[in-house]
Amino acid sequence: MSDDRKEAAKAYWKENLRLLITLIVIWFAVSYGAGVLFKDALDTIQMGGFPLGFWFAQQGSIYTFIVLIFVYVFRMNQLDRKYDVHEE
Amino acid sequence: MDQQLWIYLFVGASFALYIGIAIWSKAGSTGEYYVAGKGVSPVANGMATAADWMSAASFISMAGIIAFAGYDGSVYLMGWTGGYVLLAMMLAPYLRKFGKFTVPDFVGERYYSQTARVVAVICVIFISFTYVAGQMRGVGIVFSRYLETTIEWGVIIGMAIVFVYAVLGGMKGITYTQVAQYCVMIFAYLVPAIFISMMITGTAIPQIGFGSTVAGTDTWLLERLNGLNQELGFAAYTDGTKSTIDVFFIVLALMVGTSGLPHVIVRFFTVPRVRDARLSAGWALIFIAILYTTAPAIAAFARVNMIDTLHLTAYEDLPDWVDTWDNAGLITMEDKNGDGIIQYYNDKNEEFVQNVATPNGWAGSEANVDRDIMVLANPEIAQLPGWVVGLIAAGGLAAALSTAAGLLLVISTSISHDLLKNNLMPNITEKQELLAARIAAAAAIFIAGYFGINPPGFVAQVVAFAFGLAASTFFPVIIMGIFYKRMNKEGAIAGMLTGLVFTFSYIVYFKLISPELDNAENWLFGISAEGIGSIGMILNFVVAIVVSKLTAPPPEHIQHLVEDIRVPRGAAAPVAEH
Q1: Staple partner for B484: which of B48, B162, B480, B488, CB 3.0–4.6 Å?
Q2: What's the ipTM?
């Protein structure tokens, strides 16, 4: 790897980690936060027929996981091109 | 047409399809055998991953477990889906870039150590065998229930089918049969779910019906369920009984364990590019979520329906389906107080027994209901035609066979590739390696079949074992191998062994040696054997980091390897041509 490439790879990795941490925080918040730790508090809120904390534990967290992965895929494809490390 | 005929028709047609696919996709090279030539599209791989992932237990038992456990059942829903987020973002793309065939390949090379490779191989074989024994048992049970054979014959027929497509087709055959199996399985799961949802709530989409009102009333379904549960001395459905700390750590162990399971990871070696590995994890989760968001809805419908049907009903007024499943031994009833009426309640709740049951003249709960019935009896409860029952039989078999095949492939690969080619006999040709892989697969099928017929006592604890060990061994070493350049072989080996020994001993102690002590008072920090893999994982991280700080950094070329796997470009290069 030339020095330019090395710098690009470093910057790419840094931005990747920032994205990763943001998404993992959300991942943690919807499942461990809303579905487990704060479940009882959220259950006082009713969403249609669901107590909110229960809904996060059995439905909402799973939907959020899917969205998180697709956001990651989309952002990483952009990053790959931005730093010119994408595949042919 | 007769119901039994429909079952033979559906099961026979689906088997013919699987074998047809196996012959069409026969593997010719080790690359095709191990990773389907790395040519599987991300959507197809997502579907195959979903079929591989969802076992007979997911298909048949999960809704029933949730129906009885209520909120506590959420640990499986979150735990068995959340791991895909970790896979997509922290493991799959980098392991795909690394470009070899197996998890021990990565561990051995990244930590430049045959010892690390051997420890990894042992973990892979142990995890996969405990898991596959349960699957073969599942095949046997489904067969015996639907095809009127014994469990033994069921296991043998299942072995024969898996033998054909796993031994012939390898990963290529397995991938495309799994795609077909996913379609069979999800169709079989959704059809009865939709009808039951319409029957109970008037809404066709189960995920919405779950949060709707009971048809013809203005009471929410879950509110009614909480009421019924409490009236009968059970915990409220949306609350459960597990402690928060235990729920937290079980979810963590299952999520992290999912992303460290070798048969799941290897699926992401089969796609052409790094970006496909990320995308494929997204597709896999969509396909999994279709079943995993339906299951809790089925659980709630089935629970309401079960209590309404059984509690305070006269024995002679029971619907026909209760009789059918009574004959199969899945519902047992006994008129304990001789009043001709069924009482169903929580007779382990002493306060309830004292205040409500005894004054009413109830002498114990009179119905004992197997959890599997929640899915198996659905078609009859919803009064669906006979062909739906045939569909469920084919779906249950698809779920069990697809998971068994994926696991057997991992076992055969770790023997022929990791143990023979990369360790004991490095000079064998590709042809010989391929032959070794096929022989290993055949042997693994026989051993798994043996355990299916004579299940060892630990099969019931498979979940705790497989996930706990994957969480406490593979997940940390792979993550540190990618995200922490300074991690060296001493740290990785020490970490893996610590996680392995700790988790293994804890589970063996509470599940096999002293099951009578297996309650919250004796658990470490109140964490059950199911959740202990999380602590094993934390120990692994801590020990590995401390040991690596005290020893020499990894050699230069390993640090370059880590830099290289962090960028996608170059993954298509034929690094895997052995």
Answers
A1: B480
A2: 0.95
